[in-house]
């Protein structure tokens, strides 16, 4: 469900609770933001995408028990917009709900903009991989660190905290005496204003404090074929 800016209820799908939700410009071909969700209620759609402003369901998959994990983001340049996949639904789906790849990524967890292109990478446990329809490619394995939150295997924090739009990953050291920040070694020709200028993305770093924390999404599309990213509006006295 969504709460309006005056505190009243804006809409509800009445599909119930699930442990993963992604909100962003997942389909750059349609106006506004979208919401991808998985569902723990075995009698409700296992996964679905909705219009984030109205709650209208754009597409859904049949009920299939407790669907505990799901991810949505542009991880593959072979299909426009975000790809969506989940633990109890077959295949990788495009923003219209069509299966565009049969092999799901090895991770159904976090995401990270890590290398030089705007297509996002897979973050799971203490490693980062690049999705491929045949196999994933390992880009980073953290050494001497551990993930958090049990089987959810999340980092302490992931986000653009240093400011070049690629995302840093923070993990605690194995002995829990320090936090270690990993930053990308890849150069990029893509220029995007620091993501913390985007209000939704800044909020998304804060929501990583919750138990079922999710990767951050900005309010605009970053991915293959993206338009020029919006520049923040600066208020003047």
SSE topology sketch:
Elements: E1 2-3, E2 9-11, E3 21-24, E4 34-38, E5 47-51, E6 57-61, E7 70-73, E8 83-86, E9 89-93, E10 99-101, E11 110-112, E12 121-124, E13 127-130, E14 137-141, E15 157-159, E16 168-172, E17 179-182, H1 199-206
Antiparallel strand pairs: 1-2, 3-4, 4-5, 5-6, 7-8, 8-9, 9-10, 11-12, 12-13, 13-14, 15-16, 16-17
How would you describe this protein?
This protein is mainly beta. Helices cover 3% and strands 29% of the residues. The protein folds into two domains: 1-104; 106-227, no CATH class. The strands form five sheets. A four-stranded antiparallel beta sheet has the order 3-4-5-6, with no helix packed on it. A four-stranded antiparallel beta sheet has the order 7-8-9-10, with no helix packed on it. It is globular. The termini are far apart.
Stretches with pLDDT under 50, minimum 5 residues = none
Distance between the termini: 37 Å
Global outline: globular
> Within the largest sheet, what's the order of strands?
3-4-5-6
Q: Helix fraction?
A: under 10%
Mean pLDDT: 94
List the domain count as a whole number.
Answer: 2
The number of helices is 1
Radius of gyration: 17 Å
Q: Strand percentage, roughly?
A: 25-35%
Quaternary organisation of the protein chains = single chain
**Topology pattern, helix = H, strand = E:** EEEEEEEEEEEEEEEEEH
Structural class: mainly beta
Q: Report the major sheet.
A: 4 strands, antiparallel
What's the β-strand tally?
17
Features:
237 residues; mainly beta; 2 domains; 4-stranded antiparallel beta sheet; 17 strands; 29% strand
